[in-house]
Amino acid sequence: MEINELKEIDKTVKGWLHESRDNVLRKIDTRLKVDTKTSRRDLVTNIDKQNEKFLVGKIREFDPDAKILGEEGFGDQVHSTDGRIWIIDPIDGTMNFVKQRNHFAIMIALYEDGKGVLGYVMDVIGKHLLSGGPDLGVFDNGHPLPPVKDTSLREGLIGLSGPMVLHNDYNMVDIAQQSLGMRIYGSAGIDIISVLRGELVGYISYLKPWDFGAGRILCETAGLKMTTIDGRRLDVLSSTPVLLATRNAHQDILTIVSK
Amino acid sequence: MEINELKEIDKTVKGWLHESRDNVLRKIDTRLKVDTKTSRRDLVTNIDKQNEKFLVGKIREFDPDAKILGEEGFGDQVHSTDGRIWIIDPIDGTMNFVKQRNHFAIMIALYEDGKGVLGYVMDVIGKHLLSGGPDLGVFDNGHPLPPVKDTSLREGLIGLSGPMVLHNDYNMVDIAQQSLGMRIYGSAGIDIISVLRGELVGYISYLKPWDFGAGRILCETAGLKMTTIDGRRLDVLSSTPVLLATRNAHQDILTIVSK
Question: Residues that bind Mg(2+), according to the entry (chains A, B) (predicted)?
């Protein structure tokens, strides 16, 4: 895609995100309709659904030939990475959204033939929009993101998934103990923003395409590594434990995982 | 103390806090001088020290007869709860401050003969000041704090100390598993604000007087329970594992701790 076309898409997506945020904020103090999906900890609300419908509608109008992969299923069945795919998470961190009305994100990604083109991760309450891609660079609220320092695990705080720590999956306890401390925020989007802003040296969680699709584009552009937990290439349509980290911390963590 | 006198003190302390926040923010992008205290995870910076000296100076001028208990030792040796005691934590969550420049708090408490009079917990970057006491009530950025719902552990998110989870102290893993999820924020002040705002149903960590002194006054005023981890009365001069929670969650957690 040409740079001017990319900038035009970028402007359009940011418009959707701002409208989407305003929609969510307008309803944030109303009584939510909360349903459970696979367990009592896997929630969906009327706002997740409304917001996905809103974004799907905008994308269909703007890019009718593309496929859409959305968490709540209002998009398409997507079985191949051919062509253009939009990936959306209308509310990432729904548990935080329901219980805290805070610490949740809206995420949008555009892939073309499996390659990341543009990614957007918005911390709605914290008011951070991380945006960009390989051809535009990464921006934090419109300002170029400062280079992310290549900190080691030993010198950084690590974002982890609560359940993975409690089950000590992949030696998660050792990983936490080697770091300066673990943090658990409960939203992939919030953790990914924290890694991009240098507040965490990495993040590990079991993720689905809508959890990591946008973040992956931004993180790889910023020189971070995002792979499966055992260091393999991450397929954008897969659901798997994901390891995002600085290059140094990524190596440190792989050593502990493979012990 | 009379209500007018309390309001006058309240106004004065808020003035110190705003000045103190401005001092911290002015230096937040400078290179910090970081020293370790008891371990590589127990840090103090030049800004912790400067801010404690600033607050101690303000208190000495305003209330010369009172004793001051400060984390960094610029106050007094305090061995009894008699009389007026000011307790200050100039930067709570120093690790977050150093590694994130985010998620840290400034805290001030006033006790008289062991009884909490006024407490202040300020999330510097998140811009929340929780303030008040038994005679004034609790305020969030100057607005009366909405009543905190008496949510059970099973229906809430719980804030925990990372090290206590990793060592499974006091059945912390069971506590996390019974809740809807654990969160680890790495600052007592940030966790206490989250409990007061209803974002967490409770918080458990090993704490020192400057970590819980201010929060205790606000939490008890708001109808929350703060005790030792085994449910005993919390002495304001003690360093101990602390359990803060709604009444329901407090009971739920004590049952798990004593298993």
Answer: 71, 89, 91-92, 211
